[in-house]
Specification:
Elements lengths: L2 H57 L5 H17 L3 H18 L5 H16 L3 H18 L5 H19 L4 H24 L5 H18 L2 H17 L10
């Protein structure tokens, strides 16, 4: 290969490298925009399909009330996922009331609606109605489920997490401490239920220890917070999940 050909090849490679490096930021931004727009389009299309399904159910004389409620709840999830939590909460309140009237007995679908509504209210920073949803779920589950049921662990975990959020969002130090201490009590109860189970979920216990760490940290109990974090870190290593110490 002659020297002139080598120079041409090198020149072409330099141009290609320059184009790649020069266009990479633009390409990255374009891909980000595409992903965002694709998500929006997908969610809009899904919302259109849900509304279409609702219309069909309304026109179908054989459609059950539960089918209509399932469709409404799916719409609420879509609205929540597209940052329209207030609209989602109105729909879920309607679903909750209709499910209560439909089946006054213990109803797992009503439980699921209440949990979803509690999460939506929490995202809206309406923490009192969120707490009411979680407390109602706990009372219903406690009365109707075995004492070692994993759903009771879930309920206490939700209540603990919400108490932590309530404490973290308050400026009064006494109120903050009261919520953090309440969260710890929920965590302790959840761990007691967890240990009763025949096949307990290790991930659930790891999460409980992590929430406990957060509460003790806010209370200023360094010894208890580090101990809880150590337990969480150990369990997450067993699960092959990584956690970086928040204090580093």
């Amino acid at each position: 290969m002659v020297r002139r050909d080598v120079i041409k090849i090198c020149f072409v490679m330099v141009v290609l490298l320059w184009l790649t490096v020069g266009l990479m930021p633009r390409r990255f931004v374009a891909m980000q925009n595409l992903a965002a727009n694709y998500y929006d389009r997908q969610m809009s299309l899904q919302e259109y399909r849900i509304h279409k399904e609702e219309k069909q159910l309304a026109e179908n004389k054989n459609a059950t009330e539960e089918e209509k409620l399932e469709s409404l709840e799916t719409l609420a999830k879509n609205l929540w996922a597209t940052f329209r939590a207030e609209d989602a909460s109105h729909i879920l309140e309607n679903v909750r009331l209709r499910r209560e009237n439909l089946n006054p007995n213990y109803n797992q679908k009503l439980i699921n609606t209440l949990i979803l509504l509690g999460a939506v209210y929490r995202d809206m920073n309406q923490l009192i109605p969120s707490a009411e949803c979680y407390e109602k779920v706990w009372n219903l589950d406690k009365e109707n489920l075995p004492s070692d049921d994993s759903r009771l662990v879930r309920d206490q975990t939700n209540m603990a997490m919400l108490d932590f959020v309530r404490g973290d969002s308050d400026s009064d130090e006494q109120v903050r401490h009261r919520f953090f201490e309440s969260a710890i009590e929920h965590i302790k109860l959840a761990k007691q239920i967890w240990h009763k189970q025949k096949e307990p979920d290790t991930a659930a216990l790891a999460n409980l220890f992590y929430y406990e760490y957060l509460c003790y940290r806010e209370l200023g109990d360094n010894k208890a917070s580090r101990q809880a974090y150590g337990e969480s870190k150990y369990l997450n290593r067993l699960l092959k999940r990584d956690y970086s110490p928040p204090w580093t």
